[in-house]
Please model this.
Amino acid sequence: MYYRVIKLSHPKKVHYWVDPNFKKYANSSSHILRGSLTWNPTSEIQFTKEVSVIGGADVKMEYIDKYSGDTYAIHKGNGNITFYKKWRVELTNMQQKETSAHVVGHALGLKHTQSKNNQNSLMRQFGFNNKDWALSDDKAEIAKKH
Ligand SMILES: [Zn+2]
Model:
């Protein structure tokens, strides 16, 4: 899901905050970082700095170790992302990274792709490609937005 997005004021200097709670779980920290860094090969977006204070971040990734229905992760608007227990315990490593990249895509202003483009997009609404990098449809949308 996605909600209202404020266009990033400095998309080539995106600062991000990662909830220290991710560090409690072996692989989660690196999988969460992949969600941001996956966008850096695009020329329009650069995640440049992990900040330790949430208020200074453009994209904020919070972890709640509880289930929230069927939700793996959600962008709540304005760069605020929450990951839930279902993301950590039910997905493969690759799917965790793909989901991180997807939900950060929402924070960057991307909506779900049309289903015919599912194979070419992190932003498919359902299911996984088992690829954690920006695909052709994603790059085209980023170029349109930024
Ligand atoms: Zn989505």
